[in-house]
Amino acid sequence: QVQLVESGGGLVQPGSSLRLSCEASGFTFGGYAMNWVRQAPGKGLEWVTTINGGGDWTTYAVTVRGRFTISRDNAKNTLYLQMDSLKPEDTAVYYCAKGSSSWDSTWSAKERGQGTQVTVSS
C-alpha cells in the first residue's frame, strides 16, 4: 500500500525559503519517478516538478524554474522540495505524487499524499 506523507509547510514572508519533505513507504521508492504538484486556493492541481527514480534527471514548471529544487534520498525513501525566493503566488497545498515507473511521471490521485500547506504572505 503506497503511503506518502508530506511535511515542512508553513507561513513565510515573500522572498523566504522552505524545504518540504515527503516520506514514502509501501513501494520500492528508488524505482519510481516522483512529482510535486500543488493546488492554490480556488484553482486546480498544477504540476510543479518531477525527478526520475535514480535522481539524476529533473524537470520544472516554468513558474518555479530557478527557484525550486527537487531532490531525493533513495536510502531514506524521502523526496524533497527546496523552495527559495518564495512569492505570494506560490501559496498552495503541496502534494508529492508517485510516478508510474522510474522514467514515467504519470501519477494518480490514489498515489498522492495528503499535502502540506504553504502560505507566502507579508
Walk me through this protein's architecture.
This protein has strands spanning about 5, 10, 20-25, 35-40, 45-50, 60, 70-75, 80-85, 90-100, 115-120. The protein is an all-beta fold and about 120 residues long. Strand 4 (about 35-40) and strand 5 (about 45-50) form a beta hairpin. The termini are far apart.
Provide a compact summary of the structure:
The chain has strands at residues 3-7, 10-12, 18-25, 34-39, 45-51, 58-60, 68-73, 78-83, 92-98, 116-120. It has 122 residues and is mostly beta strands.
Could you give the topology of this structure?
Elements: E1 3-7, E2 10-12, E3 18-25, E4 34-39, E5 45-51, E6 58-60, E7 68-73, E8 78-83, E9 92-98, E10 116-120
Parallel strand pairs: 2-10
Antiparallel strand pairs: 1-3, 3-8, 4-5, 4-9, 5-6, 7-8, 9-10
Helix content: under 10%
Beta-strand percentage range: over 45%
Overall mean pLDDT score? 96
Strands ordered across the widest β-sheet = 2-10-9-4-5-6
Number of helices: 0
Based on CA atoms alone, the radius of gyration comes out at: 13 Å
Spans of at least 5 consecutive residues whose pLDDT stays below 50 are none
* Order of SSEs: EEEEEEEEEE
Q: What spatial form do the alpha-carbon principal axes imply?
A: globular
* Structural class category: mainly beta
Largest sheet: 6 strands, mixed
